[in-house]
Amino acid sequence: MTWEEYTVFLLESIGIYNRDLMLHYYRKIKKFMIWYKNKYGVQIKDIPETAQCKLENQKKAISWRRIARAVEKNDFYLRRLSFGQTKSDDNELQRLIHKWDNLLNKHTKTDDKALIKIIEEEEK
Fold first, then answer.
1. For FRET with 60, which of 50, 68, 113, 123 sits at 20 to 30 Å CA-CA?
2. Residue 92, exposed/middle/buried by CB under 10 A (0-12, 13-18, 19+)?
3. What distance in Å separates the CA atoms of residue 94 and residue 104, rounded to the nearest whole number?
4. Contacts (Cβ under 8 Å, ≥6 apart) of 96
């Protein structure tokens, strides 16, 4: 399986259980790809499967592996793709927590400290 296929697989798998979360990731990834296209002229069809690990870790290269890893790690804000935490993302997360409390709760596996903090606040 290529990294691109794996990314699509992850998004489709999320969509089976939580379409809203899948659409959130889809919108953010689309925005990420449009930004790279406008800034560097990289078309979607030209996104490489992988880039040098050092450049990916420094958030200086686009690749399907980088995108897949962000989704795989349940990175709600997609910080691994250079996004920041926004109020609209916080509001969307709170809406999703209320709507899908069986999927976004204290047992959600993530290392995103901001996501954990919001989930903990909602559970109080």
1. 113
2. middle
3. 10
4. 18, 20, 21, 24, 104
pTM of the model: 0.80
Provide φ and ψ at 100, rounded to 5°. -120, 50
Say if CB 65 and CB 3 are below 8 A apart.
Answer: yes
Cα angle at 27 between 17 and 15, to 5 degrees? 10
Number of H helices, E strands in the chain: 6, 0
Phi then psi for residue 72, to 5 deg, are -60, -35
Of 46 and 109, the structure prediction assigns the larger pLDDT to 46
Residue 26 one-letter amino acid: Y
Tokens 């709600």 sit on residue: 76
Q: What is the pLDDT of residue 18?
A: 85
